[in-house]
Design brief:
There is one protein chain. With about 130 residues, this protein is an all-alpha fold. It contains six helices and no strands.
Length: about 130
Amino acid sequence: MGDARFNRVRRRYGPPRVVREISAVDIPGIGHNGGPPLEHVPEWGPGGIGTYFSWRAACEAAYRSMPKDTAIRRAIKAESLGLTFEEYQLEILERGRFLQAEDTAQIAAIIAKRPAIRLDRTSEAEA
């Protein structure tokens, strides 16, 4: 009595299903686990993942570990030299020297490394 009822395909809601044909290209080979392609380079680069997180933690610690007064003083100094706080702090951490106004060549080199795309706020205000 109930056998014919269970063999029917019934869809109560939604549009009819579209069945896509599968070709041999779509089927992965034997031993394929469905992971990313081998050419994929992750965010941390070709090296190990441990070095990425160690590097990231060290960068965050370098900015968090300084006293508030030191950070304010360095931010003021960086602004007077035309640099951002991060650029000035990175120069101190990399080379161990504090930039002065006389170090124009080094300051120009740091500014030249900035991304080329910058928004000009005066043109936005006029528009």
